[in-house]
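Lab notebook: predicted structure, single chain.

Context: the supervisor wants predicted structures on file for every construct in the current expression panel, including those that have not yet been purified. This is the next one on the list. No modifications to the sequence; it matches the entry in the shared construct table.
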Amino acid sequence: MKCFYSYEGSIIFPILLVSSLCYFIPILVASFGEVENETPFTYTQGSGNGPKEWGKLDPDWKLCNTGKQQSPIDLLAEQPQVLPSLGKLKRDYKPAPARVKNRGHDITVTWKGDAGKIIINGTVYKLRHCHWHSPSEHTFNGTRYQMELHIIHINACEEIAVTAIAYKYGRPDPFLARLLHHIKAVEVGDEEKDLGIVNPGDIKFGSRKYFRYIGSLTIPPCTEGVVWTIVNKVRTVSRDQLRALRGVVHDGFEANARPTQSLEGRPVLFYTPTMNTGSS
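Prediction complete. Output recorded below exactly as produced.
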């Protein structure tokens, strides 16, 4: 992955361009290795193994404390750079076999077949899995919503691109509604359970506008170089749906959102199809 800098007026905009070749630059390249065993860490501050201590719990997790490209962030902590030239997020999803797993710290749906892809600046990232955090991890000018969905993609170089959607209380989420009875039935420590064919195209985005920045995984090992795309529209989830998601994870992980991290000078870009930011 490389950053290409172009000028618009007097401002330098980092346009996230991904080469078709694999350049393994340690500071930028993220592996797909989210930790599966949640036992060593918690989200509880002051517990000795909460978010502030993650980087000290395992040598492989040191970036959680020392990294300069950590996630999540407050997307409106500084004025985003409006950049229509980023282009529309290209999604090409299709139904495929999927399984659900309770990882203790979250519920994960993994597609086992070819479930399609997204394309960012000409680079293909294949869909792998999705999972939920509650409350939302990213904030909007300090506002933290009730839930956040992370949709994980990986390219041929094993670099990660995550699409995120925030949710507030309201009408039930249709995608979650299709899976909820399976989610309620899977317990911590169970093997993955078949879901049959699941269409990721059922995940509703609701807006073409999005935020874009370079960050990290939000759980250990907090690997950096993740291309984040956060949909601008806040969608809705019902209280019953969120209660079900929280009820099946390990005690202490009902709230599984990492605190926001410092920007460390990173730009946050905002794509809108027109310069009229009042449109969807």
